[in-house]
Write a structure and sequence with these properties.
By secondary structure, the chain is α/β, with parallel strands linked by helices.
Length: 587
């Protein structure tokens, strides 16, 4: 007999069938019965996109401080580091970092001017390279950084002349069209594709980004009044205007993709289409969709290989969300789709959504295995609006996850790490060093993941054993007193992971025979019984990374009612810092 988890996981991925749609609506109905039931349906994945849009437009997420001096520049940098720390601790593994805003950028460009958000003035150098800084800091924290490029919009008409000699208004005025108080690039002009591609090529060629994320790669709202009639007359060649417009946007995507690929074939290309692709058989998009309203044929971009992943902007609820979520999963060619969730609507200043709106959408997106989730935008996550950050860090993202692999870019894993050695740093910490791995993509680079477990060998398929991700150097420091065995894998820029180097390293478990492991200690969710250990004076409860969660005098029972979901380790704690492992328990 199938469990609920087996039922959902085994049958939901079926495509193009009545059963598929029936089960989706069953999932939708189940989510109304409460979070606890959903939590039983969705196991923790080892690979999952967990992305957030980090907005620099107007300093909405960052920067809050304008850099006008050395001290203010350092404050601006500390702000970003603090933000990245909070996102990392929330479980995020991918930063969509707004790099081109609207005709201006946050790196030293030969094409466009500096954005106003950095210094308070367009065209003013902030005294450092924010994009290079952001990439380095994200990578130090084991997160990918994708350069978010706002594509078609330029700037408001009233600031066009204030942006200086590098402004599109000065360099390429014939590509611009006025529409609803803004200047936009005209997608129908052949040179528009080359211009957008040149911005992306400048970023890809000069920076160690993990991907390029194209935003607003479409026609603007109220597209029926967009003034491209003369462009259509010159280039339409008898096509229906809607088809011509879609082909224009697709051409921009194709040219941009080719420009990026010619420089770095491993870079991931993504975009954020409007959240509803088209009307479904049963649900209308009510006039607002990607295909008909703004001429984005985003599903075709997946099929044609122009996109590696999509982050559709699904800032909706109910039947505006769930049917269209499943529609994105059909015909995606096994590429990645991570629905963008409108967490800003949790704010009382917006729509004041209940947290359950987002948690149910999260659970459903994981259940149907689209690839992950994304959040708009960063501050609403780091501000813990309605407790969202707590829910992610303590429950939904209780364990780390790797960014899913992209085997269509490259499917050959790097060589496995080898020849590990250890050196004690102090009375507790040991540094493990191993031989560097090599990759078949000579410029792509290799990074490393570290797994830890009391079991031998360490099971590297389990998310709960993953303790460090995307290390750039072949060494790692750990607390040997925790009694854990370690395993190290190499991972390339396309997400291919090598065989594991089983490094051992535990204080008391390293000599275990193969397959032996500790059993989870039983408990009732409120109280954990401690075994009789006359020599034990105190207990210590740690998480999988080794952080101390609880301590106290050794007794018959320990109150664990306040602990969030997760796996914990119990140890004795004696005089002079002597500690011994007792067991693990899962809550």
């Amino acid at each position: 007999m199938f469990s609920r988890r087996q039922f959902i996981c085994n049958f939901v991925p079926v495509k193009h069938s009545t059963l598929f749609h029936t089960l989706v609506f069953l999932l939708f109905a189940l989510c109304a019965r409460g979070q606890a039931l959903w939590d039983t349906l969705t196991p923790y994945p080892k690979e999952e996109l967990r992305a957030v849009w980090l907005t620099t437009l107007g300093g909405l997420d960052w920067p809050k401080t304008k850099t006008i001096s050395t001290a203010s520049r350092e404050r601006q940098q500390r702000e970003l580091c603090d933000l990245l720390d909070q996102l990392k601790s929330s479980g995020i593994n991918t930063i969509l970092f707004q790099t081109r805003i609207r005709g201006s950028v946050i790196y030293p460009s030969s094409i466009e001017p500096w954005d106003i958000a950095l210094t308070g003035q367009y065209g003013q150098d902030p005294g450092y390279d924010p994009l290079a800084f952001a990439i380095r800091e994200a990578h130090l924290r084991g997160m990918e950084l994708h350069a978010w490029v706002v594509s078609v919009p330029a700037f408001k008409t009233d600031i066009a002349r204030k942006m200086g000699p590098k402004s599109l208004f000065a360099t390429h005025p014939k590509l611009l069209r006025k529409h609803s108080g803004m200047y936009y690039l005209d997608p129908g002009e052949p040179a528009t594709a080359e211009y957008i591609a040149s911005i992306c090529a400048e970023i890809a060629g000069n920076y160690d980004v993990d991907g390029i994320h194209l935003d607003y790669i479409r026609y603007p709202e109220q597209a029926s009044s967009f003034p491209d009639g003369s462009t259509y007359s010159r280039y339409g060649k008898g096509q229906a205007k809607a088809d011509w417009r879609r082909s224009n946007v697709t051409h921009i995507v194709e040219v941009t993709r080719q420009a990026i690929r010619s420089l770095k074939p491993w870079l991931k290309v993504s975009c954020s289409p409007v959240g509803k692709y088209r009307d479904t058989r049963r649900y209308s998009s009510r006039g607002w969709n990607a295909y008909d309203a703004v001429y984005q044929d985003a599903k075709a971009w997946l099929r044609l290989g122009y996109m590696d992943m999509l982050f559709p902007m699904m800032y909706f609820t109910g039947d505006h969300f769930y049917p269209f979520l499943l529609d994105w999963g059909e015909g995606n060619g096994d590429r990645l789709v991570a629905p963008g969730l409108g967490i800003y609507f949790l704010s009382p200043k917006e729509k004041d959504w209940d947290l359950s709106v987002i948690t149910r959408e999260l659970q459903c997106s994981r259940s149907v295995r689209l690839g992950g989730q994304a959040f708009f935008r960063a501050s609403f996550l780091t501000d813990n609006v309605k407790g969202l950050r707590d829910y992610l860090s303590q429950s939904f993202y209780a364990f780390p996850a790797l960014v899913p692999s992209c085997p269509w870019l490259d499917s050959e894993p790097p060589t496995a790490p080898a020849s590990c050695s250890r050196a004690d740093v102090d009375s507790q910490m040991t540094e493990l060093t191993w031989q560097s791995s090599t990759d078949n993509l000579p410029e792509g680079g290799v990074r490393y993941n570290v797994y830890a477990s009391p079991s031998w060998p360490v099971d590297v398929s389990r998310a709960e054993n993953l303790v460090a991700t995307y290390l750039s150097e072949p060494h790692y420091s750990y607390n040997r007193l925790l009694g854990l065995n370690l395993a190290i894998t190499a991972i390339d820029r396309c997400g291919n992971e090598s065989e594991a180097l089983q490094a051992g390293g535990g204080y008391s478990f390293a000599s275990q025979s193969e397959g032996q492991s500790l059993h989870y200690m039983p408990h009732d969710g409120q109280s954990l019984s401690l075994p009789p250990m006359p020599e034990a004076e105190y207990y210590m409860v740690t998480d999988l990374i080794g952080r101390t969660i609880l301590t106290g005098k050794w007794a018959e029972h320990v109150d664990i009612s306040s602990l969030p979901r997760g796996i914990y380790r119990l140890r004795t704690l004696q005089k002079r810092g002597v500690s011994r492992p007792v067991g693990e328990f899962r809550k």
